[in-house]
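Format notes (please read before filing issues)

Several people have asked whether sequences and C-alpha cells are stored in separate files. They are not. Every record keeps both together, in the order shown below: the sequence lines, then the C-alpha cell lines. Line labels are part of the format and must not be stripped during preprocessing.
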Amino acid sequence: MQLRYNFRLYPTLVQRNALARAFGSARTVFNDGLHARQEARANGLPYISDGDLSKRVITQAKATSERSWLGEVSAVVLQQALADLNVAYRNFFNSLSGKRKGRRVAPPRFKSRKDNRQAIRFTKNARFALTPGGSLRLPKIGDVPVRWSRVLPSEPSSVTVIKDSAGRYFASFVVQTTDEKLPDADTEIGIDLGLKHFAVLSDGSKVANPRILRRAAKKLRKAQKALSRKEKDSANRQKATRAVARAHARATDTRRDFAHKLSTALIRDNQAVYVEDLPVSGLARTKLAKSVHDAGWAQFVGMLEYKAKRFGRTFAKINRWFPSSKRCSACGTVIERMPLHVRSWTCTCGATHDRDVNAAINILAAGQADRLNDCGAQVRPGHVLAPRREAVTHPTPYMRQAGLSAL
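Then the structure lines:
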C-alpha cells in the first residue's frame, strides 16, 4: 500500500524565492500545454500527443526569449506539471466514455498564481535526497530544514512540496508500506454518525461532536472583520488574508487530528467496523450544511477504510436506505416514520430504544449479515418441502382428454 507522509518545511528567504520560481514555472507549463490543446481543438487539428506537447511547451519554449527562465528550475518539476495535465485530460475523457465511475469530471482549467494552494513534485530521477543532517535536498533549491515528526517506513518514491493558503510549506512523501496486521480482537462495532453526537457505537458509548468550526467562529469572525476593513491590494490586506487563512488552517488541523485519533482507536480495538453510507453531498445542500461540513464524516470514514485495509481489519459500509433508526433491534419491526426530534421510542414488543444506539446496533447486525453472506455462510432460511398440492400441476380437462399426466 502506498501512503503519504506529510512534514512541515521551514525554507529560508532565498529558498522561498526559489520555490516561488518553481511554482510559477510549473504553473506556466501547465497553462501553456492546456492552451495549446484548446487551440488545436478550436482549429480542428488532431489532439496533441503527450510527447509532442512536452517538446513544444518545455524543450522548444526554453529556447525562446519569452520562456528562457524555465531553465532556472528543475526539468522534472516541469515534466510533472505536464503529467498532471495529461492525467486530467485522461480522467475527463474516461468520464465522458463511462470508463471512469462516479460523478462527471470537468475538463482541465487554467491555474492562477492567486490560487490558495501551490505545489510542485519531484520524482526519483530528480535526485532529491534526505541529508544526514535531517534536511530535504531539492535540486536548484538547496537543503530545506524539515520538522520530522516520525520516521519514514521506506525510501520515498516522490516528494511534493506544497505551500498552503496560510503560507506554510509541507513536504509530502509517497512511500510503500507493508500491511501491519494487528492481533485479532474479539469485538466488532457498528457506528452511527450524527451531528448531536459525532459517533454513537453499538456498545452504547457516545463520542461527543467537537464542533471545531463552531468553537473557532469567534476568532474567525474577528479576523474576517479585520480583513474587510483593509484597503484592496495593500500590504495590510495581504497580512489580514494570511491571518484568516491561519485561523481556518488551525480548525482544519484540529479536525484532522480528532479524526485520526478516533479512527485509530476504533480500528485497533475492533476486528470489524461497520458504518452507514451517508449521502454527505446531499446533506451539504440543506440547512444543516455548515454542521455537516464541520463534522467531517467523509474524512473520518476514509481514514477508517484505509486503516482497516492496512492493519488487517474488516470494514464495510451499510446501504444508506437501510432503516437503521426505524427498525427495532430486538424484534426487527420497522415503524412507518420517525421524525428527527424523536430521540427515544418504544416498540410494540415492549423494548425501549435510544434512537442512535438502536441505529448503531442495527448497522452492526446488517454488516455482520453481509459479511457472513460474502463468506458463503447460509443466511437465508433453508429449503422446506412444500405440501403436495402446491408442488404439482393438477391436470386440466384438456390434459385428461389428451392423455397427459400432471408434471
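For reference, the curators noted about this record: The chain has a mean pLDDT of 88. The longest strand covers residues 2-9.
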